[in-house]
Design brief:
The protein is α/β, with parallel strands linked by helices. It is about 40% helix and about 20% strand. The protein has two domains: about 130 residues, Leucine Dehydrogenase, chain A, domain 1 (Rossmann fold); about 140 residues, NAD(P)-binding Rossmann-like Domain (Rossmann fold). Strand 1, helix 1 and strand 2 form a beta-alpha-beta unit. Bound molecules: NADP nicotinamide-adenine-dinucleotide phosphate. NADP nicotinamide-adenine-dinucleotide phosphate (NAP) binds next to helix 5 and helix 9.
Length: about 280
């Protein structure tokens, strides 16, 4: 029941109408019997939005999505070391008017790998794409998971170089780069884990596409596709047939939300409930 003690959490972004976060988090709060509610706000005035959060002591937590992940940073009182390295915040916690920023995309993905039984320490990891999601996960794998080598393949050389330079400056992993079209086959052959971080394969426009030719896939490869709509992309389906270990994009979505839940409530996230809500929404 919503009453005078209810604590508020929300996603801010623009647009936010498509967000699954209200469904996931409200189901989790209910399952745990917590007096919290989660809503979505389309926001253009980031400074005003965070001043409002600071002034409302019951406004406990925020998820931050595109296009505000960088813009919120200058309005916070402290920022976690990982969010500072990545240069983006996706989670805010309000402790009595003191706002702390964090990022759960990378750490959540590490949890998804751990849950799948895939160790990353000492591994050579190939990233396809050089956007915001790849940035978050590459930093976590290079720093916290102790990957031996991170290779970034992209179609825009300047964007690849910018991310690679940043990773070299801030993490101990060996960093290589290449062209997504020209270097793909050799790079897949030379790595143990592939992280697909482009929109290729996504519903509705490119569901018949895969960025990795099926002949490149081999049974000892781990394939993680960040795309979560459809639940199983063409890349994942072909990787399963080739005998690869696969991790679905929905697992990243789940675990980044679970970490947010834990930061706001201090309680362990009810993963089965949250996973069920996600899969039901994505399958419909
Ligand atoms: N599972 C999750 O929880 C989760 C979370 C976030 C994102 N995602 C998914 O991850 C993907 C990337 O998201 P993002 O936020 O990182 O997006 P982004 O910042 O826009 O980056 C997209 C990257 O993909 C590249 N790209 C786009 N279209 C391409 C194409 N047709 N061929 C080759 N490369 C292409 C872009 O290259 P250019 O620089 O050349 O444009 C860029 O490097 C999306 O599919 C998104 O849905 C999943």
């Amino acid at each position: 029941m919503i009453d005078a003690h209810t604590r508020l959490c929300a996603v801010i972004g623009n647009p936010v109408g498509h967000s699954l976060s209200p469904a996931i988090h409200n189901a989790a709060f209910q399952a745990m019997g917590l007096n919290y509610v989660y809503v979505a706000f389309a926001v253009t005035d980031v400074a005003g939005c965070l001043a409002g959060m600071r002034a409302l002591s019951g406004f406990r937590g925020m998820s931050v999505t595109i296009p505000h992940k960088r813009a919120v940073m200058r309005h916070l009182d402290s920022i976690s070391p990982m969010a500072m390295r990545v240069g983006a915040v996706n989670t805010i916690v309000n402790d009595g008017g003191r706002l702390t920023g964090d990022t759960t995309d990378g750490p959540g993905t590490l949890r998804a790998f751990a849950e799948a039984g895939v160790a990353l320490a000492g591994k050579r990891i190939l990233f396809l794409g050089a956007g915001g999601a790849v940035r978050s996960v590459a930093f976590a794998m290079a720093e916290d998971a102790h990957a031996a080598q991170i290779t970034i393949l992209g179609r825009t050389a300047s964007r690849v170089k910018e991310l690679a330079d940043d990773l070299r400056a801030k993490t101990p992993a060996a960093i290589e780069t290449g062209d997504l079209a020209g270097d793909l086959a050799d790079a897949v052959a030379d790595h143990e884990v592939v992280v697909q971080g482009t929109p290729i394969g996504m519903y509705p426009d490119s569901m018949d596409d895969s960025p990795v030719p099926r002949e490149c896939l081999r049974p000892d490869l781990v394939v993680f596709d960040m795309v979560y709509r459809p639940l199983k992309t063409r890349l994942i389906r072909e990787a399963e047939i080739a005998g690869c270990k696969t991790i679905l994009g929905v697992e990243m979505l789940l675990h980044q939300a679970a970490l947010q839940f834990e930061l706001w409530t201090g309680e362990p996230a009810p993963l089965p409930v949250m996973r069920r809500v996600l899969i039901d929404n994505l399958a419909s």
